[in-house]
Amino acid sequence: MRRLSLSLLLCGLAASAHAQQAVPPSREHLAPAGWEDSYHDLHYSPVVRIGDRVIVSGIPASEGDSEEAKIRWAFQQLKAHLEAAGATLDDVVELQSFHVARDHAEFRRRADPVLKIHREFFKGHYPAWTAVGTTALFSKDAPMEIRAEAVIGSGRRAKAEIAAPAQR
């Protein structure tokens, strides 16, 4: 019994010493040029970096003279947001997009230009992606909004061994 108690005490001391040495990751709040009002006026961070993890808040597709131009602008902004935190599009592991639509048919129609532009920005090792239909976004005239999570450096080591689908 004495030997078990001594072993448990030593294990507890070792675990305590290890816990004191571990340094939690830092958390940085970032805003690319032109997005500072998001942080100061709307009280949200456009980008948060925690260690090597980067979270990009929703970027509305709000600038441009056509729906496609607005969507392309949002993807360009996504790239700039990632770069502000030291990440690249290759480092993106997850996307979420929100699309304004009244019904499923409109949702699918509005997704077509997004799919086209997505292919321009993500050429390989595609991120996980969830697309959601909604009736409204905070930015009134935006047809969609996109947010992302990335892990800095993960794009350099990405691999995919996914077989191509059989011809139909």
Structure description:
The protein is an alpha+beta fold and 168 residues long. The chain has a single domain, classed as 60s Ribosomal Protein L30, Chain: A, CATH 3.30.1330. Helices cover 36% and strands 24% of the residues. It is built from 4 helices and 6 strands, in the order αβαββαβαββ. The protein has helices at 2-21, 36-40, 67-84, 104-121; strands at 27-30, 47-50, 53-60, 92-100, 128-134, 144-151. Strands 1-2-3-6-4-5 form a 6-stranded mixed β-sheet. Helix 3 packs across helix 4. It is globular and about 55 Å long. The termini are far apart. The mean pLDDT is 87. This is Rid family hydrolase. Keywords: Hydrolase, Signal. Residues 1-19 form the signal peptide. It comes from Lysobacter cavernae. It holds the Pfam family Ribonuc_L-PSP.
Sum this structure up briefly.
The protein is of the alpha+beta class and 168 residues long.
Indicate the topology:
Layout: H1 2-21, E1 27-30, H2 36-40, E2 47-50, E3 53-60, H3 67-84, E4 92-100, H4 104-121, E5 128-134, E6 144-151
Parallel strand pairs: 4-5
Antiparallel strand pairs: 1-2, 2-3, 3-6, 4-6
